Amino acid sequence: MANSKFEYVRNFEQADSLLPNTWIVVRIDGRAFTKMCAKYRFQKPNDRRALDLMNTAAKAVVTELSDTIIAYGVSDEYSFVFHKSSNLFERRASKLVSTVVSTFTANYVYSWSTYFPDAPLSPPLPTFDGRAVCYPTVQNLRDYLSWRQVDCHINNLYNTTFWSLIQLGGLDNKDAERTLAGSLAADKNEILFSRFHINYNNEPEIYKKGSVVFRHYELVDPNGHTVDTDTDADGLAEPIQQQSKSRAEKDRKKRAKARVVVEHMDMIKDDFWDRRPWILSNKPGKVPKEA
Amino acid sequence: MANSKFEYVRNFEQADSLLPNTWIVVRIDGRAFTKMCAKYRFQKPNDRRALDLMNTAAKAVVTELSDTIIAYGVSDEYSFVFHKSSNLFERRASKLVSTVVSTFTANYVYSWSTYFPDAPLSPPLPTFDGRAVCYPTVQNLRDYLSWRQVDCHINNLYNTTFWSLIQLGGLDNKDAERTLAGSLAADKNEILFSRFHINYNNEPEIYKKGSVVFRHYELVDPNGHTVDTDTDADGLAEPIQQQSKSRAEKDRKKRAKARVVVEHMDMIKDDFWDRRPWILSNKPGKVPKEA
Amino acid sequence: MANSKFEYVRNFEQADSLLPNTWIVVRIDGRAFTKMCAKYRFQKPNDRRALDLMNTAAKAVVTELSDTIIAYGVSDEYSFVFHKSSNLFERRASKLVSTVVSTFTANYVYSWSTYFPDAPLSPPLPTFDGRAVCYPTVQNLRDYLSWRQVDCHINNLYNTTFWSLIQLGGLDNKDAERTLAGSLAADKNEILFSRFHINYNNEPEIYKKGSVVFRHYELVDPNGHTVDTDTDADGLAEPIQQQSKSRAEKDRKKRAKARVVVEHMDMIKDDFWDRRPWILSNKPGKVPKEA
Amino acid sequence: MANSKFEYVRNFEQADSLLPNTWIVVRIDGRAFTKMCAKYRFQKPNDRRALDLMNTAAKAVVTELSDTIIAYGVSDEYSFVFHKSSNLFERRASKLVSTVVSTFTANYVYSWSTYFPDAPLSPPLPTFDGRAVCYPTVQNLRDYLSWRQVDCHINNLYNTTFWSLIQLGGLDNKDAERTLAGSLAADKNEILFSRFHINYNNEPEIYKKGSVVFRHYELVDPNGHTVDTDTDADGLAEPIQQQSKSRAEKDRKKRAKARVVVEHMDMIKDDFWDRRPWILSNKPGKVPKEA
C-alpha cells in the first residue's frame, strides 16, 4: 500500500526558523498556577519548595540543552537563553519552544514528590506554555533579563508587604490592597519596617533577585584581564559559519561537563557579566580547581 | 523602581497566529525514543505498555483541551486536531504547541509508574517536541490523518515481519533487513504466514491501526439521517463569529462532560466520519444511555 | 576572488510561503492619493479617467499573471485573487505582492498620459503598496469580495451626497459633514432626490458597483447545467498535485488567450458566480463565438 | 446596508512585522530582464543608459523614503537599506517591500524615455519583484553589501571577457563559454590584455563597482575624529524608544534636505564607512559648503 496519495499533506507545514545571529529567549509560564497554588497550598508570598522545584527543572533544561547559556526564573516563569550562534533544531521556533517546555515539564512532574512529599500530584497536572523571542544585540538581551529581574523585585516587595499586612497585620485582602494602592517602594519598605520590624533588605536573595542558572567556571577579574567577549559583544561578530566544527564540538563537550549552578544575584549591573565572560562568548572558561 | 526603561523588550515578541478557519494539527514526537526504548527495554516490535501510556497521556490532552476534536497516535507520535473554529489562545502557534506538549509530557511522566512499575524513570526523562500545521479543508485534514494511519500500517507490517525473522527465525538484524529489502506487502504477509504461521490480519488492532481518541456519543446512521455537518464540510462555513456565545458555551460544557474514548479503527474510509458527525461539526452529539 | 566569505548572508532570508490550498488575495492601495487627487485635480466624487486608468492597469495584471482568477477595484484600491491551486512563485508572499504591485504601477504610470493628456505626471509619482491575505474557503473569499463591494456602495452613496451638497447645494465641507452625520442610506437617497433631483439608482454602475475584472467565456445556465465547480467549491478539493501537468499547461494557454473584461456588476449574489463557473474552478470555459 | 456581516474577513490578514533593531534590506530584481535586454537591444556587457535609468529610479526611492540609509545597485537589481531604528510602516514587510518596488517601478517607467528616447516602451512593461531581509549586526549588513559588490566584480570581469571574445574576437557564444570555463580572475585579465589590449583596471568604475546611493555630507577624517557611531556600531545600541521624538523629527527634516548622490566606489573596506559615519548612525552630518 503506497502512501504517496496522502503524502502531499506534508507541504502544508510552514517554516518557522528564527533569524540567525540573534539571541533566542524561550520563556515558559505556568498555566493556571493560581489554582495550582491553592490546590497544593503554596505558602504566601513565596513558597520555597515550589521555587526549588522550578530551579531543579530549569537546571535539567540547561544541562540537557547545552546551547542554553543562561536561564532566569521568578515565580512560575523561567526564561532560557540560547546563544546567538546556536543552530539547534535549525533554529525552528516550534522545536525549540516545545523541547524546552517538555523537558521542563517532565522534570517538574518527576521531581515534585521530592519537594512536596506530603502533597501528591493529581490531575489536572501542572503544565507550562512557552514562546520564543529573538534579541539582536547583547544590550537587548541584557535589557530583557533586567526587565524580568526588576519585575521580580517590584512584585516581591509588593507581595511581601501585602501578605505581611494580612498574615501579621490581620487585614483582609481588600484592606491590604487599599493600603498599598499608589504606594511607592519607600512606602512599602516603611510599612514593613515600622509595622512589622521587617527589613526588606534582609529578605532571602532568592525572593528578591530570583534565580540565575548558568555553567560555572573560574571567575575572571574584569580589570586585569582582556575579556575575550569583546568581539562578540560589539556586534561585529564573526560570520557564524567560520568557527571550525571541531572547535565547536570540543566546546560542546566542555560545556556538557561544566557544573550548572543556581544563584540569586544581580544580573542588571555589568559586574555579573564582566566576571563571567563565558556566558556571552559561549567559549567555556576554566574549570575551578575545587570542582 | 520603574521598569519602563527595560519594558521596550516586549516589542520584540512576534505574532504567530495561525490562519483562521483552518483545521490545526499539533503533532508531537518522542525525542530520542530509540535510546528510551533501549533504556527501558520496550518490547519489539510493539510494547503494549508504552502504547497504553501514550494513549493515557493523549486522553488527558483531549479531555483538558476541549477544542481538540480528535487525536491519533502511533508509536511515539501523536497528532491532536483543533476544530477550525477554535480560537484557543487566539490561535497562537507557540501557545497551542507548548500547551499540548506540556500537558502530554506531564501526564506521560505522571502515569509512567502505572505502566512500568518495575522500571522507574531516571534522567534524562522522556520528552516530546511538537509543531502545528494548518489544513484548509476537511479533505486535507482527512488526508493528513489517513497519511498517518497508512504509515502506521506500513511500518507495523514491516516491523512485525522484521522482528519475527529475528525473534522467531533466528536471523540477525542485517539478515532480516536484507530479507525484506524491496519486498512488497504481499511478500511480508507470505513470510509471516509460511515461516511463522502468523496471520497478519489477526494481529491486534492497536498495532495495525494505531489509536484514535475522540469524544463518544451515540452513533449516527449515515443513511437514515441527514448528517448535519454538511454545512461545515462543504467549505461554505458560516462566518466564525456568527455562532452565538451562549451556544458555544453550552457546547463547551457538553463536550467537557462527554466520555473520551480510545479506539483502534479505520479512519480512512468515510464510514468512521459519517457515523460520528460531531467530530467535524464540533456540535456535541447525543450522550449514549449506557454511559 | 571568491565570494564564499560573504555568502553566508543568504541564510538570513526567511521563508514566507503562503498556506497551500487557500485563495490568495493581493490588495493594493494608492499611497497618499489624497494629495494625488488634489495635485491632478481629480473630479469629485468620482473621476472617471482615474478609474479607467486603474482598470487599465488591473487588466494588465490579470492578463500577465494568468493565475489570477478575478480582480476587483474601487477608488484607489484593487484586489487580485489567485486561485487556491496556484503555485506561482512557490506562493512566496513577497514575490506575489511585489510582482502585482510592480506590474500595476508600471502600467498606471505608462498609461497615465492616455487618460490625463493635459496633466503630465511629475515627481513624486503615484505609487501603491500591497499585502497578501489567504482565505481557506470559497465562502470566505466571496465574503471578502462582498465586503469590498459593499464598502464601495456605502462610500459612493456618502460621497455622492456629500459632494452634491457642496457642488450643487453650496454648502461648505463642514456643513455637508454635519448634514450627513448619523444619516442612514434612506436619508441620503432622500437628500439626493428631494434637493437635487438625483435618483441614486441611475448613477453609473462603475461608481455604484466598482469594477470586476475576469476572463470572459460563454455564460453558463445555472439551471440547465451541472456546474462543474461543485467539487472545488465544496472544500473536498482534490489534492493539489493530482491535476496532470499537461492539462495544467493546456489550461494555462487557454487562459492566456481568453479576453479579459472589465464589468461593473453585482458579485455578492450567487448569480454572478453560477453563470461563470470558470472563475472558481480555474478550468477555462467556452470561448464565445463573437469573440 | 451594514457591512458588519462581511467584515470578519479582516481577521485573516496576518502580521508580518520585521524584528526590531535589525537592519532591513529590501532587494529588488528585474523580472524577465533577459527578454527586456533583447527587446530594447541593451548593449553588452553593460548598457550605460540602462544603468543610469536604474540609478535614477533608485535615487527617487532613497529621496522619498528618508529611512533608507544607503542603496546599492548592479545590473538589474538594487538593494535598499533601512536603518535598524526605522519604524516605517511599523516595519511591516509587505508594506516596505511593496512601497520600494512601486516607487522604483514608477520612476523607472517614468524616466525611461529620458534614457531611451528612441526605444519607446511597449507592453509587457519592465517590472521588478522584491523581498525583505533582516540583518542583526553592522557586520552582517556590511557583509551583505560586500557580497553584492564582490558579485558585481566577478560577473563584470566574466562578462567583459566573454563579450570581448565575441565582439572583438569573433567567437560564438559556445566557444566563448568554453574558453572561460574554469578560468581564474588572472586568466581573464590576461585574455583581455593580451588578446584585446584591454586593461580591466581602466574599465569604468560604474561597471566594476556598481552604484552606491546615499546622502552626501562633509566627509569625516577617520583619524582626527572620534566617530560617533561607536555606540551604534557596537551592538550596545540605546533602546529604540529613547531617542526623543523632536530630535528624530529634526533629523528627518535634515535628511530630507540632504543631497542624494550616486557613486561608484568600494564599500568593502572600512574607509568608506569611517569617512561617512552618518550612514550607519543615521544622524545627519554637516552639509558641505559647496552644496
From TrEMBL, chains A, B, C, D:
tRNAHis guanylyltransferase catalytic domain sequence ranges: 6-136
Region (Disordered) location: 225-257
Entry EC number(s): 2.7.7.79
Xref: InterPro entries: Thg1_C_dom, tRNAHis_GuaTrfase_cat, tRNAHis_GuaTrfase_Thg1, tRNAHis_GuaTrfase_Thg1_sf
CC cofactor: Mg(2+)
Pfam families for this protein: Thg1 (PF04446), Thg1C (PF14413)
Domain Thg1 C-terminal: 139-269
Domain of life: Eukaryota
EC supergroup of this enzyme: transferase
TM region positions: none
Keyword Transferase: yes
GO molecular function annotations of the record: GTP binding; identical protein binding; magnesium ion binding; tRNA guanylyltransferase activity
Record field: catalytic activity: a 5'-end ribonucleotide-tRNA(His) + GTP + ATP + H2O = a 5'-end phospho-guanosine-ribonucleotide-tRNA(His) + AMP + 2 diphosphate + H(+)
Residues where Mg(2+) 2 binds: D29, D76
Positions that bind Mg(2+) 1: D29, G30, D76
Manner of cofactor binding, per the entry note: Binds 2 magnesium ions per subunit.
Keyword Hydrolase: no
Sequence similarity: Belongs to the tRNA(His) guanylyltransferase family.
Summary of the function given for this chain in its UniProt record: Adds a GMP to the 5'-end of tRNA(His) after transcription and RNase P cleavage.
Protein name (Swiss-Prot/TrEMBL): tRNA(His) guanylyltransferase
Taxonomic path: Eukaryota, Fungi, Dikarya, Ascomycota, Pezizomycotina
